[in-house]
Write a structure and sequence with these properties.
2 domains; globular; four-stranded parallel β-sheet; about 290 residues; Hypothetical Protein Tm841, Chain: A,domain 3; alpha/beta; Rossmann fold; six-stranded mixed β-sheet; 13 strands
Length: about 290
Amino acid sequence: MGVAIVTDTVSCLPGEIIQRYKVTVVPLEIVHQGKIFRDGIDITPAQFYEILSTSKELPSTSAPPPEVFKEIYDRLSKQGHDILVICPSAKLTHVYESALIAANMMQEVHPGIKLHVMDSGTAAGAQGFVVYAAAAAAFHGDDLSSVLNRAQEAMRGVHLVVCLDTLDYLARSGRVPSLIAKANTFLKIKPIIELLPLGKGVIPVSRVRTRLRAMDRVVEILHERSGSNTLKVIVQHTNAEQDANMLAKRIQSELICNELYIKDFTPVMGVHTGPGLLGVSFCLDKDIKIEK
């Protein structure tokens, strides 16, 4: 039956890709005031950002428990599939750990199962592009080893660049000192950061004062990275659809873009970034070969 691809909602994978390549997407969990919401199932991004903007209590997030992954592995293996699981960077969440625990549980019961769990070394749409490459290879009949190789090749060329509208939520979650967040707010500074591929971490790219300048800088970065090459792009946002549409139009008009999608940044990550995030996940078209 071929190779089944499993990922999670952190990948921010566009719905048309999920449906076309039959990717299984496992929801992370958002916890607020004792209630558990499955990302993308029990709560929409709009509902989540309403909670985030009105509640004094910051929601928390949780990786899917191993039992959820194990149930999926069991179902797919009974259908005759080999399985590749593509997770966000283990430095950012516990999804990889949970998926791996479930894989070990499966191996004990079914020692012959062909199942591999990989850390994509990234997150959001950059992770989505790794999944996309693997899913396309699986769709066209590649075996598990070849699909895994395709995913590992894609990992080297995927990037995520975002502009944060505020550091307040990162401060509230303890990820940046509150004094730094307050200083940025006072000076009206909007930091632009990049999540490097292969788990190399987050680096500062630039600091701007307005949304328009943030868009300018993001487009400049795409120009710098792409040269004359064709891009694949996912424009991402947290409750900033109008700005995302504007940025997408600029990218389409100013760069060579083979595929472009607009996608909400998953609320699981929005807990820490807050509303107003705007950015792009991208790769060079030649680095992720998709057979149509």
